[in-house]
Amino acid sequence: MPDKLKMNYNLLNDAKRDLHQLADDLIPSMDDDAFQGLGDGTSDDILGSSDISYAVYTLHSNASYTMGKAKDGLTKLGDSFGSVGEAFLQFDAEIAQGMNATNSSLALSNWQRNKDQWDHRQSHLDECVGDKQPEFCSATDPGAAPLDQTIVTDRGNIHTHLTLDDKGNVIKEETTVTYDGKTYSSVTTYGDDRSHIVTDSTYPDGSTVHNDTKINPDGGSHSSSTSTDTDHKVDTTTTDLNKDGSGTQTVTNSDGTKHVFTRTPDDWRGTSQEWVETPESIEDNKPPEEDYTYTGGY
C-alpha cells in the first residue's frame, strides 16, 4: 500500500465525458432512416438484387448488435471512471467547504478587530493630534463586513456566505462548491448561543445529510445524523457523548437493522478512542442459522 495516494479526478471525469461522447457517436449512423429501411431484409426491389438485400440485412444486424454492445460497454466504463472521480470529489468538497468556512470566519474575526480599532479611533479623535499619537490613531476604516468569500479555479469555485445577528455573531454559514458542473452545498445554522448546530449538506449525486447537534451545559453533547441516498434509503446515527469523550452511538440502517457502539474516555492526550460494538448488538445482528435437519431420502 503506497504511503500517499494521489487521485486526479480531472482525468477521471474527462475520461467519463469522452467515453460517453464516443458511445453517443457510434449510434447515429445505425439509426439513419435509409440504413434502417434497407436493413430489414425486404429491400430486394429497391436494391435490385436479393443477394445485395441479404448482404445489407446481414451488415445491419451485425453492426446493430456489435455497436449496441460497444455503446453499452463504453457507457458502463465511463460510469466506472466517473464513480471513482465523483467519490473523491465529494470527499474533497467537504474538506474545501470546511476550509473556506474557516477562512470566512478568520476574515470576519480580523475585520471585527480592525472595526473595533477604527471605532476606538473615531471616539478619541482628540488624542490623534500632534507628532506623538497613540498607536490606535493609525487605524483605518475596514469598510463593510466580509460576508462573502470566493475561491475560483479553472474548473469551478467555492463560495461561502455568512449571516450575522444584530450583535455581529455568525448565525448561518452557506457554502457551495462547484466543480465541472457538479455542486456540493452545505448550510449550517447556529442557535442558542452556538450550543445548537444544524447542518444540511447536499452532494453532487443528490444524496443528502442532515446533522443536528446540541451541546449540553456540562460539556457533553447529543447529535443525530440522517443520511438519504439517491434511492431515498435513510440511515440514521445518534450519538451521546460525555464531557470526558466516552459515549454511546446507535446506527439504524435503512433495512431496519440497528447497531449499538460505545467508547471509553479520551486518553491523557485528549485523543478520542475507537467505537466498539457492544456484545449484545453483535448477538442481535447475527445472521439466522440455516436448518440442516435431515428429512430422509437420497
What is this structure's SSE topology?
Blueprint: H1 9-26, H2 33-38, H3 44-47, H4 50-123, E1 148-153, E2 156-164, E3 170-179, E4 182-191, E5 196-202, E6 208-215, E7 221-228, E8 234-241, E9 247-252, E10 258-263, E11 276-277, H5 279-284
Antiparallel strand pairs: 1-2, 2-3, 3-4, 4-5, 5-6, 6-7, 7-8, 8-9, 9-10, 10-11
For this entry, give a set of tags.
single chain, 298 residues, alpha+beta, 11-stranded antiparallel beta sheet, 5 helices
Q: Can you tell me about this structure?
A:
With 298 residues, the protein is an alpha+beta fold. It has a domain at 145-284. 36% of the residues lie in helices and 27% in strands. It has 5 helices and 11 strands; from the N terminus they run ααααβββββββββββα. It has helices at residues 9-26, 33-38, 44-47, 50-123, 279-284, and strands at 148-153, 156-164, 170-179, 182-191, 196-202, 208-215, 221-228, 234-241, 247-252, 258-263, 276-277. An 11-stranded antiparallel beta sheet has the order 1-2-3-4-5-6-7-8-9-10-11. A hairpin with a 2-residue loop joins β1 and β2 (156-164). α1 (9-26) packs antiparallel against α4 (50-123). It is flat. The model has no long low-confidence stretch (mean pLDDT 78).
